[in-house]
Design goal:
Distance between the termini: 54 Å
Oligomer: single chain
CATH class: Mainly Alpha
Number of strands: 0
Number of domains: 1
CATH topology: MetI-like fold
Structural class: mainly alpha
Shape: flat
Low-confidence stretches: none
Helix content: over 70%
Number of helices: 8
Radius of gyration: 21 Å
């Protein structure tokens, strides 16, 4: 099998890798803010529950979480896990995992804002929601962007873990080709794909950070 053929086959798998990446990012970024508000809630039962959720998501391997999301419904409730459920389980597993990390990143950014800004906004007649959306959030985005970038880059590489539930994306295809042709070349090519993807993501996030350079 020529390198050109390997690249063509891996490109098909890369489409699934990119799809998983963008959908997980789309779901986990806003979900992370919801998780943060739950953690910061003054209602203790909710706050304790969310803290436990964050601890579990960050303290256990993502691969294990994917296996639980995929096989759990069958063993617990006898649900049919065929069809499109595999893709849904992947999105849910990755999104809930990364939402926990993003929630902690948001918390560090929000809690770094001086309390005086909240008091000044209250004196000016801003509501709590107006204060957060117009004053706090723009600053927080700038503060947390480097940390978010690190997690986004990690997400690119973590998409390879979906092979654990037998989902065919780029890394799974590379393993199949390598096993069939007894060559490591597919892994090297897949590594190049991941590197280029991460390079583009890092470049975009750097441009975004400079575009949002309104807060020092």
């Amino acid at each position: 099998m020529t390198i050109q053929v390997i690249i063509q086959q891996l490109l098909k798998g890369f489409q699934q890798t990119a799809l998983i990446f963008f959908l997980v990012l789309l779901f986990s970024l806003p979900l992370g803010m919801v998780v943060y508000f739950g953690r910061a809630s003054k209602w203790k039962p909710l706050s304790i529950f969310v803290k436990a959720y964050i601890s579990i998501m960050r303290g256990t391997p993502l691969m294990l979480q994917l296996l639980i999301w995929y096989f759990g419904p069958f063993y617990l409730w006898g649900m049919n896990i065929g069809g499109n459920y595999k893709f849904i389980a992947i999105l849910m597993g990755c999104s809930f995992n990364y939402a926990a990390y993003f929630a902690e990143i948001y918390r560090s950014g929000i809690e770094s804002i001086p309390k005086g800004q909240y008091e000044a906004a209250e004196i000016l007649g801003y509501t709590r929601s107006q204060t957060f959306l117009r004053i706090i959030l723009p600053q927080v985005i700038k503060i947390v962007l480097p940390s978010v970038t690190n997690e986004v880059i990690t997400l690119v590489k973590d998409t390879s873990l979906v092979y654990s539930v037998s989902y065919v994306e780029m890394f799974a295809l590379a393993k199949q080709i390598a096993a069939a042709k007894t060559t490591v070349m597919p892994f090297f090519i897949a590594g190049i794909f991941y590197y280029i993807f991460n390079f583009l993501v890092a470049w975009f996030m750097e441009r975004l950070e400079k575009a949002l350079d309104y807060y020092e």
